[in-house]
Amino acid sequence: MEAEAVVEARALEKSYGETVALSGASLAVEAGEVFALIGPNGAGKTTLVRALTGTTAPDSGQARIMGDSPTAVDRSRLGVLPQDFSPPDRLSAHELLAYYAGLYDDARNPNDVLADVGLADTGETWYEDLSGGQQRRVCVGATLVNDPDVLFLDEPTTGIDPAGRRTVWRLIENLAASGTTVVLTTHDMAEAERLADRVGLLAGGSVIARGTPEALVRDHGGASRLTIETAADPDAFADLEYPVSRPERGRGRTPDSAVVVRDIDPAAIATVVDYLEARNFEYTGLTWSEPNLEDVYLELADQTELERTDSVDDAADHSDLAQAGETA
Questions:
Q1: Where is the composition biased (Basic and acidic residues) (predicted)?
Q2: Checking DSSP bridges between strand 150-154 and strand 78-81, what pairing results, if any?
């Protein structure tokens, strides 16, 4: 029997004037699952989180949390971290958490929460005097004072340094292990790969792909790649048994002069080296890489953007033709 979804969106639609933010967005998140929403800016991630948490009313479709509508659910069971969250500056970190804890009948000790987010030694520091990353961690802590059953985090680690980011990651992992259901948005593919049981890619207001990070990489990530830093042209590799091309734009950091050998196993790298040396091709480096979630993101997001652009161009062409007919 399929587990009942703790968080669910069914065909959510939301527009602001002529701007479509959500276009039939659907997802289901099970108890204790970490579900990461990824997608380009303007894809609708924040609007979807707002619709799921009841802070934005969708134009159509249905959102449910623990079987209730977002506006009817017991708020003490939820933790919500908006993308933009600005608590009072002239309170200490401890005072801020104590304030939010005071909103609940059975809240956690603010000192314990500060320790959870790695700020045990900064409790008496005013919020305005904390670094940007420390402020964000305090904000994460504010969502945990009520020990929520369901946690929504909209880009939780934005502005946090690598060490602090790993503290937050471990915290989310521990929360999920204890049964908390987590929905988060992120632009950090490493964050999504590490934390998420499943990932949903939102583009154009719709969830166009979902699955475990491993399944998404397998289905959409493409082939493994060996990047060769060389001035040689891809045509010079015509008789190599593997496909060779220039690097695709936007696919990570690549040298100005390089070629990419695709679909190659690490054991075959020596064959390519022998090939280079037999032909006296000069090269300054070799880098082998497997596809990852960033490749999935770029492939599917680029494809959706291309389809959207083609659709806009087609509409413009039809409009031009219609205007030409009217003036003929």
A1: 308-320
A2: parallel
